[in-house]
Structures are given as structure tokens and as C-alpha cells.
Records
---
Amino acid sequence: MNHDAYSDGYIRGILNTVKTIAMVGASERDNRPSYFAFKYLLERGYRMIPVNPGHAGETMLGQKIYARLSDIPEPIDMVDIFRASKHALAIVQEALLLKPHPQVIWMQLGVRNDEAAALAEANGMKVVMNRCPKIEYGRLSSEIAWIGVNTRTLSAKRPPIGGLQRMSLNRSSAPGGATAAADRVQRQESDQ
Amino acid sequence: MNERIPGFATLAVHAGAQPDPTTGARATPIYQTTSYVFESVDHAASLFGLQTFGNIYTRIGNPTTAVLEERVAALEGGTAGLATASGHAAQVLIFHCLLQPGDEFVASKKLYGGSINQFNHAFKNFNWNVVWADPDDISSFEKAISPKTKAIFTESIANPGGVITDMAAVAQIARRAGVPYIVDNTLATPYLCKPIDHGADIVVHSLTKFLGGHGNSMGGMIVDGGTFNWSRERRYPMLCEPRPEYHGVVMHETFGNFGFAMACRMLALRDIGPAIAPFNAFLILTGIETLPLRMQKHCENTQAVAEWIAAHPKVAWVSYPGLPGDRYHNLAKKYCPLGAGAVFTFGLKAGYDAGVNLVTNVQLFSHLANIGDTRSLIIHPASTTHRQLTDAQKVQAGAGPDVVRLSIGIEDKDDLIADLDQALAAA
Ligand SMILES: Cc1ncc(COP(=O)(O)O)c(C=O)c1O
């Protein structure tokens, strides 16, 4: 897997398959990026489980917060890592101890750990790094175009609606306008 | 995984514009509405909190305008766009997000005269301080940098035409100084030049010109290149600090490589207010669909007219980088290989009165203060736009008594040449 450039089909496939997502590093503060992503994905129908040892036992947007992945009493499909890159390896190791283990490891925008990715992939997991599932959902459903973002997709098909001001991921699209300069900078920064 | 990247003309027609989700309408509908209903109090809270995407109020965003924003962002190779009521409004929003009172920015002194005015006078009231540099001496940009510098600003092809900026060289200076490089790409359009590919971090447009292209709508655009690391530089509080006007959100951390466009929307457009009208967005969008075709014709006509004028006995000089021997010809070949644009100036041997006679005698050329129309346009700056300046200032601004500026349209080039021929004969 080339972790510098994921195809839209790969990302769409993951977001269309997973149902239960554990977010490690979820914050209850309503101005934090993890809160934004958590709330958005919850509203899109995912079962969202917050993991944050500092707040274990509390609830976030009605969902019980767990201290660690192994405390979660149900199977999870995807782990979304909202922690600094250096913590990602330990989180993957923890995820591998779960039975059954999750199918997807997703590291947030700004989070990349190639060793953690290699370990996950060696165990049959799919990996996404340095992306935000909220942004990717918005991009591939084209909701994010409402705020002027280049979705990098094109389509001449009428997109399905998911509700009032809601679009759906159940669609296809062709690649659109590339963001070569931004992608290059992102690669350079993740090499440092 | 190799995904096919669509070409420019495909993006000009399709980017941002899928069939309307509710009606299937294929042309982008004009959403002539100020506001949008919320599904519930919760939905409203998510929208206002930026936790979900959607429309609230047309000052902040509109579905017709959003298509235009994505379209221009895609054509420029940027991560996101933000449309505004005019090109000048776009510049105010950009600098509002970058500068604190007392800060400086370095700008090329060869700019559209309106931008020179905006920077020299209007911005001074905000205590945003411009320091001028000379695009013909790139080292002057480096010398103009101080600890207070927050940005560098140039045009790609400068209005009134002729001057091409060595953008890659300016971009290096910006990189060393740790400041974003802003390029006004109005005269070139992304069809002729993509500044982000040459190191620009932010692109700004007056959509009023070639992008709209038909002289019927005002508009501006900010494109976020997604290339500047606001969090590393830590000198841009609108991007890297919790924002009190937005319940403590940190724009770059939250929105990543389109954080600048989001700051322009939520912190600048929302609070300062120069939103584009949806109808104008629609007209400009329709114009962009033919941008590649029009720019080809604009450039082809301009090359022919410039060559013809250069050989005319009443003409002292022509400044068009498409002409071999022009001092910017090599820069034009590097930055605008498909054509050097459609705006240029020339000098009349007989000076001021000959200029006045020429604009009076033309029949097809319209005498007005705009550029980038399907129609050919003419202006004699010394008697119009630059009238209030002293003679010395006029010469310095490239608007001496002998100077005439043309913006060549997409008519038949032989008719344009015939019109200039009869008008010059009588001048
Ligand atoms: C190069 C350039 N930049 C900016 C502007 C300002 O744009 P607007 O008139 O849309 O405010 C103009 C307008 O003439 C221009 O030519």
C-alpha cells in the first residue's frame, strides 16, 4: 500500500464497510478536532466508542468512554488514532490482542507511523495514515464541497441524498482536480 | 494506484458541478436564498460549531457559490477556494487572516493600480504596512523583509500587462523568510499559469476579468494552496491559536491543508461580509466552462495585434512578453508557455493628444476601465485612471502621457487590426 496516495476507492471501501469505530484520544471539549470528527461520524450512523484513560467511565455525546481498547466489551471494526505518531505502534499492538481484532487502523491527519502501519498490514489489517475520516467522508460524499473544498472528484451522476443537507457515500466518482503541491509538502513533512 | 488525472478543459467544465442532488438539474442551479432551514436544534448546533458540513447563511456559504469555489480551486491545483464580492474584497480577507496591526508585507511595485491604492491607503488605516519591492530586481524582495514581514505579494502577469514575475525566485525568498507567498493570477488565469506549481501558497483572483470573461459580473476568489505550515511558523494567530470568535477552534489543526481557506471563510468573510451574489457566481461559473477556448483565442489575437502594432510607424514601443526580444519574453516562455495573456501597453510617438484621439476614433474597441472581456477594450491611462497623478508619478506607474492599454477580445483579429488601423490613421 502506498501511504502517500490512497485511491478514492480504497478509502470509500473502508468507510462503507466499517460500522463500529473506537476513537483513541477522543476529547469531550467541543472545539477539539477529535470532538468534531467524533460527532460527525456519530451523526452519520457509525457506532462511535471514545477511548480516553483520563475520562474513563464518563460519557461523551451519550457514548461511554473507555480507558483502553481492551476494556471495550464489543467487537470493533476500526481504530481511529487521535494521538501523536509515536503512540501509534503501542495502539496497534493493543488492537492486535483483541479477539477478533479490528480490520482497519486509521491514523488521523498529522499522524503517521510506518512501523505501526507495517505491523498492522502484516496482520491483515487495512491502514490509512495522515487523513481524517470526517474530511474523507465529506469529500467522497461531496458534502465538503459546500465549504469550497476541492473534493478531487468528478461525477456526471446525480448524487444520492442522505437527508436534509446530507449526502451519501453510496456512489461512485471519477478522479478530479489534483493537489500536487499540497501533497508534495505533506510527503516532505512526513519524511522529516 | 494510478488514477487518471483529468485535463484542464475537463475540469473547467466539470469540477465542483455534479447534477443537482434533489432535482437532477444538470446546469448548476442558482440558489437565490439567504438562508437554509435546520433539521433540528442539534443540526443547527453542529453547523454553527463546524462539526458538520452544510449551509447556514449565504454570507458564509451558498451551494451555487460553492461550485465556483471548488472549480477554481481544482483549476489552480489548490485544496479549497473562497469566493468574494470582488477581487479587492478577496485581498482584504487574505490580509485580515495574516496580519496584525503594525505588521508588514512585501509587495511588487508593478501591480494593478487599484491594488497599489488599496495597499498604500486603505490598508494603512488598519496599520497593515506595505513595503514595495521591484520585480525586475528580485534581491529587492529579500532586502525588504523584516522581522515584521508576514507575507509577500506579486502578480503573475502584472496589469497593465507586460511584466512577468519570476515566481520561483520570489517563492524561495518567501520560504527562507518563513512567510506565505500570495500571487494575484488574474491576468494569466490558471489556463496560462498555475502559481501554486511555482511555489505560491495562496492565489487570489479578480473573477471579474478573464475567469468570468464576459464583462458582466464582479467577483473575487482566494485559493488555498495547502502548502504553508501555519502551525510550525506560529506567527499567524488566526491560523494556529484558539480563536475567541469561534469558540476556541484552532483553524490549521482542525482543517489541515485547507485551514487557510476556512480561516478566510469563518474568521474573515463571516465577520467582514463581502460575499458574492449567487447569480454572479452562476454567470462566472458559466464563463469558466469556456475559459480554455477563450484564452486560446485571446492569446492568438493578442499576438497578432501586438505584432501589427509593433510595426506601425506611429508607435514608439510595445510591451508584450509574447514578442521575441521583449525583456520578459524568456520569463513568459517559462511561466506562460501557452501565451502571454491578452493585456498589453504601447506608446504613441505623438504623446498625450494622440492617445486621446486614438480612444476617441476606435469603433470596435470599447473605451472603458476594465480588462478580460470577450470584447476588445482600450484605455489611455494618463487621461483616465491615472489622471490624478503628477506627470512623474504617471511615468513611474507605467502610465506616461504616450501610453495606451489594450485588452484584446475574441473577435476576428483582422477586424481588430482594421479598427486600430483607421483610428491610428486619424490620430
Ligand atoms: C490584476 C488585478 N487584480 C485585482 C483587481 C481587482 O479586482 P476587482 O475589480 O474585481 O475588485 C483587478 C481589477 O482590475 C486586477 O486587474
Note: Chain A has a mean pLDDT of 95.
---
Amino acid sequence: MNRVKPYFLLNPLVYAVLLGVSAPILAAEAPSAPHAAHDGAAVTLPSATPAKSAPNAALLTGATFTPPDPASIPNDEFGKAVQLGRNIMYETQKYAPQYVGNSLNCVNCHTDGGAMAGSAPLWGAWVSYPAYRSKNHKVNTYEERLQGCFRFSMNGKAPALGSDVLVALQAYSYWLAKGLPVDEKVAGRGYPDMPEPAKAPDFVRGKAVYEANCAICHAANGAGRVVNNEVVFPPLWGAQSFNWGAGMGSIKNAAKFIYANMPYGQSYSLTPQQAWDVAYYMNGQERPQDPRYEGSVAATRAKYHDNKNSLYGTTVNGVLLGDTGVPKPFKGNKS
Amino acid sequence: MRPMSILPIPLLGAGLLFASILAHAAPPPEAASCAACHGAGGQGLPAANYPRLAGLPAQYIAEQLKYFAEGTRQNAIMVGMAKPLTPAQITLLADYYASLPVAMPAAAASVAPDLLARGQQLAEFGDWKAGIPACFRCHAAGGVGVPPYFPPIVGQSAKYLADQMTAWQSGARKGDPQGLMHSVASRMTSTDTQAVAAYLAALKPAAAVLGNAAQTGGAK
């Protein structure tokens, strides 16, 4: 990602979008009467005015790289590994259930199966490792980076180095990055940087943003929605979501992801302030324990969460977040 | 409710689903005027472009009737049908049709394989370069819908489905929550619309997973 150039200088389209988003969207979409949703939770729907939005997360990233079309995955042994990697991204629950401890799939946070700029694309990651990570104070290989996703984002267990699952994910990432020079500054990597919010992120404002823009899909209680035993809208917090050690648990990462990717299909339709507020609300809720738990919330916060982007170990809305005891023993999901 | 003029549409399949209707709920008298077009079992009449109502989420049906009455959703026939309905009648009709077992319309005509392939791609993966998310990410796998806000998109005719896309594009249909469907439709080309409509109309999922039979709840 280009971290030097201010994002609003990137392209004239950006102006159009920013003009759109700078309008007070909540005011424009005055909430109508609350509807009683079938899951029992009242959800307030905004009126019919569609929010102005960008087609996808790429817009504010300045990305120019186009990964290859999945139809061109070669029909040989290498191609089989690439296809398996792609399947794992879309249907982690089906293709790697033994390493997964929640109901998420990788694609939930890596739009378009990890191909979309501005949604932490795997091609942007592939050309950026090995890299030093402050998370574990060492130089990580790409494979080690993938292990972290299973342990934290998927609240599961890291597949062994060299295992079929990690080989397939590497094959797919490599294939996606075809033609891209090795350079960790590649535009489109990660989620696009955002300015610090004008007002400190706020739980109460975040709740209002959530109810007007997110609850229709993720449900008022954040548990998402399931149809015929299949998750349609993934859980944002609670027992089936990512754990306290995950990257999405950082308010800043979440704000960046949300701004560029949510509401689904309406990239950049929130104002940056709304994205920060709703990220705070989402991450101010309880979720599975950090697997690096140090015996107490305070010790775990001191060691891993002592920064303003983590609410772990702080009291939000009357709850001391993370005070749920030792991590639950891991039982892999069944496919 | 005031008597409504019923267009001379043959009561196709009126007897067909009679037994199953009785097993569910007696039709309210208001439904008599709807049956002419939507069928006695709410199964719709694909040939005439009348959508199925059976098994759609009750809240969705009620919203759409209000939209027709207010002109938020424009349709010469349905605006006239919806305007005279009182809120109580709307609730009655919505609950009634939502409770009916899902009937699938007649099989779709044969379609070119490459059009079907494009349709399947849009339904399952979308086309993110163009800003089109997969239909099944919001309408659930197989397009069975996520009550109450996301109606099923299987069990409707290709023409009806395509007409809805065009209606969002032209502004004749509004009222979709948060403009979610409007955002998607506005990015579809007419070929995309034809392709996805043909693909969806050709899908024949097991009746058990359709519409009102779909189990919803929080993630497990």
C-alpha cells in the first residue's frame, strides 16, 4: 500500500466519492419505524435512499495490479493445489475444518477469495514476506503468517508448516501474484490507510451506526445469520467469531476494513468517522479468549494489548472485556 | 375490503394445490382477487410474469404491498391491487401467502450454456471488478433467501427476475433496505441480468430448503 501519498490525492473519482460520503448519511437516511425481525431483535431500517458507494474496496488504494482470472488456473498438479487454496479461502469450514474453531471463512475478511485490492489481498501479501512482525518480534515467513490467521482469525489451530493446507494457500497466493514485483509497498495491500478520527471513537455513536447499517445482515446481537445450517452473514462478535488475538480485533484494522468493504456491496459509503465508531462498537463486545492468555486479563493486556486500538482488558459498557478465563480447549469443526 | 375488478385470467392450477392449502390455513376472502394472477396456491404464473408469493417472508410481502400502494414500487397492475388494502388486510394476506408451501414454476426454456455459466458465476462468486457481489452471499446458498429482509430468488421466472433488475435501474422499484439491491442492480449490464436470471430460473433446489422452510437464526 502506498503510505506516503495522501489517499485523497489519488484520483479524481475519489473526490466524487468523498463528496458523496461527506454528506450526513444518517440524516439523509432518516430511520423508519423499527421492524420486528424474525430473530426477535428489532432492527431499524433506514429509508430507501441508496447510499452513494464505490463498486469495491480498490478505489482508495491506488492499486493497478490485476490478478489472473480463476478460469485460467492450469489443469495440472500445480493447478490442483491452486484450486484447493482457493477453495480453502471460500469454504474454510469445508476444506480445512480440522484447523477451525469458529464459523468464519477466510473470504469473510478477504473479499473475492483474497483477490480484491483494499481487502488484504493474498497477492499483496505474497510479495511482502518474509517480514518482521511486532506481533511476535521476529521475521516471519509467509507460511508462518498464514498460521497466525488460523490461530487468531479462525480461532483455531495452526496447520503444521508444510501441511497440504498451507502448501495449497501458498500455491494460490503465488498464482494470484503472477507478474507482480516483490515489494511490500505494493498499492492495494492490506486495508487502505485511514486518517485518525476527528472525534474519539464512541460506543454509543457506534451502536447507532451499527443498527442503521449492519444489523440487517449481522443481526442486532452480532451473531450473524444462518440459513439451513449454513452461515450467510458471518458473526462479528461472540463465541463463533474471531478471537481477541486477531488483527480484526484492533479498532484501527476494523475501521479500515469496514470503511473499504462494508456494508457489503457499498464500499466507502460510511463516513470515516462512522467506520471508526462502528469498529469501536464491534470490538467493544465479548469474543473468544486470546490464545496467548497470560493467566489474567491484566497480564494479557499488559503483554499483548497495551495500545489504544485494543479494548481488551478495558471496561466498555460496564463489561471488563476478555475476563472470561482461560481459552476454551480447541475442538476442530467437522466438515 | 372493497370488491376489486378481477382481470379475466384463467384460474390456472386452482384445484391443483387445494389440498395442501387446506392443510395450512384457509385463504382469507381478500386472497380471492389475488388468486386470479398469483394462483390459488400462490404459485404464480410464470408465462404471464406473475411472481410466486407462496413461501415469501411475510414481512417482505407486506412491505412490497405498501410500496406498490405508495408508488415506491411502480407496476400498473399491482398498484391498483394494493391501494385499496387496509393495513390489517395487508398483514392477513402477507401471513397467509408466507404460510403456503412453495411451488416451483414450470421448468425454464433451454438457455445457451455460456450464458448459464456467466449466470452461475454471478450467483456464486459475483464480479467484484464491476462491484457485483455474489447473489448467494445475500440471498443464501441456492438463492433460498434470508428472512425477513432477503427474499428468495429461486422459484421465480427468468423474465420476472430480469424485470426487477431493470426496475431498480430505471428507478421504477425502490424501497429496498439501505439501497442494497439497488447498488447491485445498478452495476449489472443487460447481458449479466439475462444470464443470472436464466441461471436462477433453471435452478431446482429441493423444496424442503425453500422459502418458509428455510431455518434461520444466529450463527451456530
Note: The beta strands of chain B are 216-217.
